Amino acid sequence: MSRRSERTLQLALFVTSVAWFLAADTVAARAARGLSQRFALDAARPLLTSVFLLFLLALGFAVLQAIATRRSSVREAIGLPERPTARREWELGAALGWGLVVLAVLPMALAGTLNIQLWTQPRAFGLLLLNLVTLAVAALAEEVAFRGYPFRRLIGAIGPVAATIALSLLFGLGHALNPGATWTSTLVTVLAGLLLSIAWLRTNGLWLGWGFHFAWNASMGILFGLPVSGITDFASIVQTRAFGRLSLTGGDYGPEGAIFTAIVLLVGMAVLVRITRDYAWNYTYVPIVAAGYPMDAPPPAAHVAMEQQARPATAVSLVQILPTTPQARSVGDEPKP
Fold this sequence. Notes:
single chain; globular; two-stranded antiparallel sheet; 12 helices; mainly alpha
């Protein structure tokens, strides 16, 4: 297959995977709504939606993988390769996500613009656990949808730089319809998409990006009780309202709508590149191929011609030097007088 044909195939797979994601998102939302109404599980509707979406994405992407490459490994299709550093990568991403959220919220805490209320009834702790599970599954589903199978297909079609920019723009536009979204929040989300794309490019897996995405949302919505991309449903025990300049608070959208958070994400990109040096070497380096020609194959004709030209014009005869001592007797014979 030519390079052009390969790129066309990868682009077709990308478009198909995006179409499947949009269809799966609609089906998952309707199925979750129907089950939650039928069994009175309104609080679990976001979790059901994320579980159904993740299942449909894994199924569809595995089928596309099998059609294109004759291989149907679900883990490989969704971007979660099995390897010994998987847990460490997830934890490293979670630590980075938590640290950047703390950095984004710190100016508001120092300025005293946070109004915090605590809800300590028993139901709040149940909601806390439910929200943690929901955010973990939702973060994985979102990573699979954007930087799992589709991202790799787009890289094969237009290259890593253009694919990163395109997917990050789509990631930002995908959140533009959230409650309280602004141009600033869209920019911040695009930067978050860039950071998560870099996480994939540095590790060739979603483990680190999944950990970052989950910890970012959980820290923002559960630990600090602030809106997560304009959604306030994840605050349980800690419920917070921020007042002050929009450049720090982001208004109703939350810190993800603040200019300061954009600066925080740029810092996070530099940190991410530094802490993933070993993973980039282990999982993304291109093996070195030895130069020259195989020893079991005839050398090129040009090489043979150069060797022949380098030989002397006349051959030099070899002279055999015979020993001066007679060699007619054996070692055991007596010497003759």
